[in-house]
Amino acid sequence: MKYDLITQEHQLIKGIIKPKAKVLDLGCGSGDLLYELIKEKAIKGQGIEINEHEIYKCIAKGLNVFHGDIDSGLSEYPDKSFDYVILSQSLQQVKKPDGVLKEALRVGKKIIVSFPNFCHINSRGSLFFKGRTPITPSLPFRWYDSPNIHFLSISDFIDYCKIREYKIEKALYINKKGKIAFLPNLFAETGIFLLSR
């Protein structure tokens, strides 16, 4: 049975977040995850999004979302002002991921990061056999219209966390068939991590 990757990802993130938590969603897009968390977990949620059209969709859902560029920092928020900060499918799209993660860990007690695994077996096969930039369910864009500017793998992110001494409290891996336990850097299309300092 095939599962939608975004639906799976949202279900797993909702499973991590405790009810009534204070949550900041960075790069919240149209606000679907934030809306689900408010409705199902009674969280106190806020989002930041750079795309005006996506902000209109958030407002239509009744969400508290600010127009902003998360690359410029989160100076308006005090330390540990949120229980969770979410970066769902946005880390690979920011210009300065290191700075964004530092700020997220400053303002949040814990952060949840999810991203497409650029070293999934289908991506590797496309590069090797076709000599072309991969287009997969988790990477559905052509090279010229992709919002992704950083291409990382699950192994890259784990190494990064070790270097920065960020604690990985939980790691979940999925593909279109469900959760992955074996060789996630090869078989998972998306990685989801719960981090703290």
Key terms:
alpha/beta; 197 residues
Find the count of extended strands (DSSP E, 2+ residues): 8
Give the count of structural domains. Answer: 1
Q: Please compute the radius of gyration using only Cα atoms.
A: 16 Å
* Helix/strand order, N-terminal first: HEHEHEEHEHHEEHE
Total number of helices? 7
- The CATH superfamily name is Vaccinia Virus protein VP39
What is the annotated CATH architecture? Answer: 3-Layer(aba) Sandwich
- Give the mean pLDDT: 90
> Sheet bearing the most strands, described?
8 strands, mixed
* % residues in beta strands: 15-25%
Give structural notes.
It is a single chain. The protein has 197 residues and is of the alpha/beta class. 34% of the residues lie in helices and 24% in strands. An 8-stranded mixed beta sheet has the order 3-2-1-4-5-8-6-7, with helices on both faces. Strand 4 (82-88), helix 4 (97-107) and strand 5 form a beta-alpha-beta unit. It is globular. The mean pLDDT is 90.
Summarize the structure.
With 197 residues, the protein is of the alpha/beta class. It has 7 helices and 8 strands; from the N terminus they run αβαβαββαβααββαβ.
